[in-house]
């Protein structure tokens, strides 16, 4: 059973904790970057013909003679897009990374719904596999959990860029996009995240990995079977090979961290043996520190 | 080349499954991974099973087959034909004397020798045989000719050094007999060269290239043409000496004896000899203890090579175990240089190296010595005499005697008292010990005959303890009485005509000595022989074994006399009882003891206890060889039947085992205390006899090669590189 009986209780606890300690930092009541008719000043821009003169900054005009228009942040409902990796590599590990990923999806969705935000869940592998449409209200959590339970790992490939492209082509409104994946993407994880950035999505990466992926305990002659592509390689794993593998894995993890850091994306990396609520709390703490 | 165990070659059949498994190619272990993303980068898209890798697998197969072949060959034990034709007979003579315990060679001389014997064993070839002979106080064959190396190793490991001298010559002779007429016999002597010098030490350089060694060499010295003409009847084996020693200095006690004083009943005399076997001045202390109570501490300053001998007089009533120990030994010479190894053997770093702090205790065995001082006991003496000052004074002069005198024959005789009857003789002699001097009347034991005028003593029983240190042949005796005894007597002193003047009567009711000399007319009372004669008589009555219980050298065999042991036990019991015996109302003296029918010797079990606590049942009168320095005890334990009787009557200490005899064993050997090997040994020491890489059997090299291939295969399997 994916969601045990006390799962909703734990979600409620997380929701309360997020309001008390981390209110407005990550999900609920987070302001959009949409400019519009809000009351909170955002910045200036050049005046052009046709602009509403009510928003002209007369003080600057009086002092400097420049015509600048004041811009205000528009307060809207936050749209939270939870992008869940459903590729077969997510089924790896004990417990499977996919289970933790679904728990995290449900938890983040609950917190957002509790704060009257809108959420949507997009399951992807080599493309969009399934979708839970944009919705709001805490009452939608149960259909969402049923949706998550019905998901299976599938596909022969992982392609985040293709999935993001599919969402963006629909003219989806920007918001917060949380990518929950192992980021083992032969096409590169940057393509999808770049698209989100370009469309002014506030992206957050939640990267999961199994401890055996970081430190595989095998030496000698073995057949390596890729669970995603089902391809088999006969190799002889020596200690030198193993050292190289570990080095490459750490480089991959490091590249994800550096990418997120460089472009201001939130990033959480965790092994799949961590409980989902602990992980959510640590995510929020990290966001609070970074704020 | 041939094989000792050719049947083992069938084991090569194991190669078939190895090749089969290689051909069948065991299915590889399949491991699921979440992505090949990183593994692709690891192998950089090169074919993971390249030709070179397959070749590596072939090499692995070859390594496995070679490994198997080598192991099978090693089990089959190959040998060259010349090895079979020139099989050797080796006898390892191991010196186990006390000096081999010296720790100037790390960890000790004996352990270094043991290691060397093991190395010789390593080089034992097929059909070679080896025997082990120990050269302690007596040569002993530890293991006869054998070729089973583990058995030989166990025999070598079971040998321990003893506190005796070495009998190298006898051991070499024994080894020669073991080898017999074998053409390739070899005797290897592992010693420190501190024992007696062998008569014909032949160096290996002399022996090299000669088959019949010593005998021929000696002949050639006389007649140069003897080698060509001589056809030896008996081939003498090579004798190779391996010396494990340095020129370590040592100071040891080479003699230590104690005895009761002949003139002082309470006194005892000590004779001690200390030898400085070094070229340096040595100072130290000689500490004497009697039953662990300090008696004296004597500072000693020894010149180089000095033999220091002293005698001391001390007093003790109880006697006991006298121990001497050399302590605080130090070399005074500032120019002292530690001993150099005679054959390059590693010198013990723990051995002293500086002159100021040197302790000279590389051989602790000879730093202590023991001796037995016999115990004395106070005796009650009743002198019944009409009056003789000399007789009374000779007993009064003895502090171990309680005297009571009577001028008349008493009606009742006291218990546990030696009765001296001078002239006054009752019709029936009392029970118990008696000393009769110049009897005037007949008794139930003798009848008096004519007077003997001017008797001259010409016959003395010098073996008897009663006549120890006494000469009566020049004593003026104007008058003595001729006596005819009704009981058997032991004649102690007799005249030229065979008339007895001093005898011990074998009386069932108690010991009896009869001296028929007229004391008043003789000058015996003025002679020193008189108090000695009385002291001997008192000691004989008391049952003291002897005045002198000599300390024995390590390895000696001692005689144990159960009858003396019984007396010793009784004396112990009496001394512990003390004065209570005189209050006995019966007044029948020792007759009461005899009436109680003490247990016979057959009722006891005797066993010998060594200084280290090892207990050996005593099966005969001979004890030994006693090869440990210290006090050896003969203990007496009551048999089961007697134990039952004792448990009903008294909880005697005999039930738990009582010491009935003690022997002091010392090293007392100047050769063993001198740790410097003789020049002859140092010259003949051969350091090349131990096995080297080329002297080992073939299977050893096969195993070495197999180990190499095993390592190679392990490397190929575990650390196989693909790119």
Main attributes?
heterodimer, A: 291 residues, alpha/beta, Rossmann fold, six-stranded mixed beta sheet, three-stranded antiparallel beta sheet, 9 helices, 11 strands, B: 723 residues, Immunoglobulin-like, 5 domains, eight-stranded mixed beta sheet, five-stranded mixed beta sheet, 32 strands, 26% helix, elongated
- CATH C-level class of the largest domain in chain B is Alpha Beta
Write down the Rg of chain B: 38 Å
> Sheet with the most strands of chain A?
6 strands, mixed
- The helix/strand order of chain A is HEEHEEHEEHHEHEHEEHEH
The N- to C-terminal Cα distance of chain A equals: 37 Å
Can you count the helices of chain B?
A: 18
At CATH level 3, the topology of the largest domain in chain B is: Rossmann fold
Helix content of chain B: 25-40%
Which structural class matches the secondary elements of chain A? alpha/beta
The interface involving the most residues is between: A-B, 37 and 24 residues
- Write out the CATH superfamily name of the largest domain in chain B: von Willebrand factor, type A domain
State the shape of chain A: globular
User: Which term fits the overall shape of chain B?
Assistant: elongated
Number of separate structural domains of chain B: 5
Q: Which assembly state applies to the chains in this document? A: heterodimer
Largest sheet of chain B: 8 strands, mixed
Task: Give a brief outline of the structure.
The complex is a heterodimer of chains A (291) and B (723). Chain A contains 9 helices and 11 strands.
Explain what this protein looks like in three dimensions.
The complex is a heterodimer of chains A (291) and B (723). Chain A is built from nine helices and eleven strands. With 291 residues, chain A is α/β, with parallel strands linked by helices. Among the domains of chain A are: 7-18 and 77-210 and 269-285, 3-Layer(aba) Sandwich (Rossmann fold); 35-73, no CATH class. In chain A, strands 6-5-4-7-8-11 form a six-stranded mixed β-sheet, with helices on both faces. In chain A, strands 1-3-2 form a three-stranded antiparallel β-sheet, covered by helices on one side. Chain A has a two-stranded antiparallel ribbon with strand order 9-10. In chain A, helix 1 packs across helix 3 and helix 3 runs antiparallel to helix 4. Chain B is an alpha/beta fold and 723 residues long. Chain B folds into five domains: 2-77 and 701-718, no CATH class; 86-245 and 677-695, 3-Layer(aba) Sandwich (Rossmann fold); 250-373, Immunoglobulin-like; 379-542, Rossmann fold (3-Layer(aba) Sandwich); 555-575 and 600-666, no CATH class. In chain B, 26% of the residues lie in helices and 29% in strands. The model of chain B is unreliable at 197-231, 339-347, 349-357, 566-601 and 649-655 (pLDDT under 50). Chain B starts with a strand and ends in a 5-residue tail after the last helix. In chain B, the strands form eight sheets. Chain B has an eight-stranded mixed β-sheet, covered by helices on one side. In chain B, strand 4, helix 5 (109-122) and strand 5 form a beta-alpha-beta unit. The relative contact order of chain B is 0.12. Chain A binds chain B through residues 89, 92-93, 97, 182, 184, 186, 210, 213, 216, 218-229, 231-236, 238-241, 244-245, 248-249, 252, and chain B through 28-39, 41-43, 48-49, 53, 717-722. Strand 9 of chain A pairs parallel with strand 2 (29-33) of chain B.
